[in-house]
Amino acid sequence: MNDDPILYEKTDGGVAWVTLNRPQVLNAINMRMRDALWETMLAVRDDPDVRAVIFRGAGERAFSAGADISEFGTAPSYAEARRARRQRDLWGLMLSLDKVLIAAVHGYALGAGVELPLCCDIRIASEDARLGLPEVSLGYIPSAGGTQTLPRHAPRGIALQMILTGDPIDARTAHRYGLVQRVVPRERLYPEAEALARKVARHPALATRLAKRAVVEGIELPLAHGLALEARLAALALASPEARAGLRAAVEGQ
Ligand code: COA
After folding, report:
1. Where does 128-236 show beta strands of DSSP type E?
2. What is the pTM of this model?
């Protein structure tokens, strides 16, 4: 059995799979896994062949039960941990990628195990998924971006309810709140994620990149600035050979 904490597999069609691979501890994210994820995300960033990435958890029980609590006492000093985080801002790197990131979530997705999917663009959950942020009940707060990403996906009151109670929610509830975009039976989870990734990866690369950028950067801006950003990016897209070919084909097909 491969005991690498992260399995990375490129397939044809521009799709890559990233598997959190510590099923014996519900894919808890330890420092080794975090380092491997960092390296993998750099590889994804720099590989023009990879257009879409699907994240999943190994084993039957969990996407990930969050940060590895067995390392809490052994972690470096607070200052050291902060320095390491600044140097290797994994969540910031994920949020800055211009590839399409899809999380395929099953079983437990707790703490960083739900914050990682929240750094993705699209989340698909299987019916058995349970998503929660237990950090406050343990005496600290989510720190893989969750206090910022969750209220940008779910309504503010729901985000606060999840963060302040620590109670997990099931897949259907997560869907109702907008945290996940689709709920499917467990056996359909990876085929659905793959079909979605392949569809996205088939579209012209530049248009996909620019459209993602318009949404992700624009949502942080006042509307007028967001519209100006969209206009700039649309001009870039329109000037591309892909757009000219695509529009010509559409006109000829009429
Ligand atoms: N870090 C390290 N190990 C973890 C872990 C984590 N976050 N979550 C689960 N594990 C390990 C358990 O220690 C156990 O290991 P063992 O078999 O060597 O004892 C194994 O994974 C299976 O977990 P277990 O607790 O026996 O399963 P369960 O079905 O009884 O409970 C959970 C499942 C998810 C409810 C429970 O494991 C849990 O609460 N985990 C911690 C979740 C958490 O607080 N995450 C946020 C950290 S910030």
Report:
1. 130-132, 169-170, 182-184
2. 0.94
85 touches 79 (CB < 8 A): no
Taking the C-alpha atoms of residue 74 and residue 95, their distance in angstroms, rounded to an integer, is: 28
Q: Which amino acid is at 173?
A: T
Under DSSP, is residue 30 helix (H, G, I), strand (E, B) or coil? coil
- Classify 144 in phi/psi space as left (phi over 0), alpha (psi -120 to 50) or beta: alpha
Assign residue 209 the CATH number of its domain: 1.10.12
Whichever domain contains 86, its CATH number is 3.90.226.10
How many angstroms does the Cα of residue 222 sit away from the middle of ligand 1?
42
**Domain of 222?**
205-252
Distance 174 CA to ligand 1 centre (A): 21
The CA distance from 190 to 94, in Å, is 21
Task: Say which residue, 234 or 73, is predicted with more confidence.
Answer: 234
- With a 6 Å cutoff on the Cβ, whether 179 touches ligand 1 is no
Task: Using pLDDT thresholds of 50, 70 and 90, give the confidence band for residue 253.
Answer: confident
